[in-house]
């Protein structure tokens, strides 16, 4: 569906996010015919590039990520023709007048400022945009996580943005919310009659959320070492997933209703304070090991610093203190350099109350619903059935299996394609509202504080494994195990 004409100004246009995600996403949307002919894409960064140099840069970035763009006929050239470039140095306060000129004749259009820069610059950029009169009635700002590094800095950042852009024009991206499979979680819960009656502590034993990566810190050690896995993945992506699993049915799919329900979940999260941090959390750091590509160095070697306590792995037992979820633990884990790239949500139902089968039928496993976010996106509902054949009543645990790739023969668009177009459409439902982000920090802060106060280093784990053994012990203490791929 075509959208209204828009101008998008990308700050940090020569950076990693712009190369890997934004330029390819805009190209794909243009190729799909969704970008109106008048739309303009203006790159800015400190680098002194001409329009043509930026177009060359963008061409390379797109071809690296979408090699088939080479054979796209004139599509790629037409896309590149929309691009222009203005050098802007936010700190040195240079280039704003030129940006104003580039945006001339577009005052009536939707105007998007995409801040793909370090968060340190968000406040300054917003302030300068305001001072230079570049913010129009129809302007929107898009900011990337991390929004701050704790509650206090998140508030400051939100205040700085809020002085220039009202909340309705502020789009805080959590790209997990743009993933097809994550949106499908809402369809699964709220477009089916089957699950919702069972979706509570009477029928659900526990929930696991795993976001495992096989890659290491990939040249981002500078940022990552100041953040760590809790800030980088749990405070945002994993808590957003937890909210979508745990929230009450919203009144509608409108942004306000969704954010209201997420906020309630976050407010119900039991604080993990000093006394509990050792039993409810495990932080790990990878040592040298192997990944699919061969031997890989440890985190400290990559960083060139032998004293860092930054965690590259976290496992947590979270509890939601409300009527629906009382006594249903949510086990969360994420890490870099794990055995595989695999993200999934596993909802395990309670055991049957009584078995009518005799011992020869074999063990009866609990039902579980596995929502695989990536790779091999799909949903599996594990059920007990009778082993076929005349050999008596033997039971087997087998999945009702819905693989998205098999069920739908369509390209799985990148999250950014959906999210950027939602900004143009003015649809905030897949973005994070200020209070939601801040509430997530309010829960994460005491964990970070307690870790900081403890002198204990993170638990080591070998690259290419599933993390430190303490993470296995965390869930086994409760008589449960992490879900393994079946
Ligand atoms: C980002 C984190 O938000 O998400 C990265 O900063 C992480 O550290 C990435 O690698 C994972 O995203 P995806 O889409 O590859 O699962």
Automatic annotation (TrEMBL):
NADP(+) binds at residues 46, 145. The active site is at 237 (proton acceptor). It catalyses: D-glucose 6-phosphate + NADP(+) = 6-phospho-D-glucono-1,5-lactone + NADPH + H(+). Coiled coil: none annotated. Its EC number is 1.1.1.49. Pathway: Carbohydrate degradation; pentose phosphate pathway; D-ribulose 5-phosphate from D-glucose 6-phosphate (oxidative stage): step 1/3. SUPFAM superfamilies: Glyceraldehyde-3-phosphate dehydrogenase-like, C-terminal domain (SSF55347), NAD(P)-binding Rossmann-fold domains (SSF51735). Keywords: Carbohydrate metabolism, Glucose metabolism, NADP, Oxidoreductase. It is an enzyme of class 1 (oxidoreductase). This is Glucose-6-phosphate 1-dehydrogenase. It comes from Inquilinus ginsengisoli.
């Amino acid at each position: 569906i075509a959208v209204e004409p828009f101008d998008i100004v990308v700050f940090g246009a020569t950076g990693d996010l712009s190369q890997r995600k934004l330029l390819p996403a805009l190209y794909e949307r243009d190729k799909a015919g969704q970008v109106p002919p008048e739309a303009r894409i203006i790159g800015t960064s400190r680098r002194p590039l001409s329009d043509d140099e930026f177009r060359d840069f963008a061409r390379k970035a797109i071809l690296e990520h979408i090699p088939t763009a080479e054979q796209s006929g004139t599509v790629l050239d037409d896309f590149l023709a929309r691009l222009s470039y203005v050098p802007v140095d936010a700190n040195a306060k240079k280039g704003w007048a030129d940006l104003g000129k580039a945006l001339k004749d577009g005052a009536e259009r939707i105007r998007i400022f995409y801040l793909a820069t370090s968060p340190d610059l968000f406040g300054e950029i917003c302030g300068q945009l305001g001072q230079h009169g570049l913010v129009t009635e129809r302007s929107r700002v898009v900011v990337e996580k991390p929004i701050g590094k704790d509650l206090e800095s998140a508030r400051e950042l939100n205040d700085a943005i809020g002085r220039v852009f009202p909340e309705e024009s502020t789009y805080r991206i959590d790209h997990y919310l743009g993933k097809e499979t994550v949106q499908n979680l809402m369809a699964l819960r709220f477009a089916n009659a089957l699950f919702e009656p069972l979706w509570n502590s009477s029928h659900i034993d526990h929930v696991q959320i795993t976001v495992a990566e096989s890659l290491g810190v990939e040249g981002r050690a500078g940022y990552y070492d100041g953040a760590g896995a809790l800030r980088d993945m749990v405070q945002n992506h994993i808590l957003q997933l937890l909210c979508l699993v745990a929230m009450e049915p919203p009144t509608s799919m409108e942004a306000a209703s969704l954010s209201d329900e997420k906020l309630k979940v976050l407010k119900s999260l039991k604080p993990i304070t000093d006394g509990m941090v050792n039993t409810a959390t495990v932080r790990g750091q990878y040592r040298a090991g192997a990944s699919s590509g061969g031997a890989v160095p440890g985190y400290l070697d990559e960083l060139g610093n032998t004293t860092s306590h930054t965690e590259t792995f976290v496992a947590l037992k979270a509890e939601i203190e409300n009527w629906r979820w009382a006594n249903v633990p949510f086990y969360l884990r994420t890490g870099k350099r794990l055995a595989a790239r695999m993200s999934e949500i596993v909802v395990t139902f309670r055991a049957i109350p009584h078995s009518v089968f005799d011992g020869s039928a074999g063990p009866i496993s609990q039902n579980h619903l596995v929502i695989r976010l990536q790779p091999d996106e799909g949903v599996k509902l594990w059920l007990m059935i009778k082993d076929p054949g005349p050999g008596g009543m033997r039971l087997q645990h087998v999945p009702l299996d819905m693989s998205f790739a098999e069920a739908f023969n369509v390209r799985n668009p990148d999250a950014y394609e959906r999210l950027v177009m939602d900004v143009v459409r003015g649809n905030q439902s897949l973005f994070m509202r200020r209070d939601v982000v801040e509430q997530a920090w309010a829960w994460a802060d005491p964990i970070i504080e307690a870790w900081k106060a403890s002198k204990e280093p993170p638990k080591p784990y070998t690259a290419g494994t599933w993390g430190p053994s303490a993470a296995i012990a965390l869930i086994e203490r409760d008589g449960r195990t992490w879900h393994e791929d079946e």
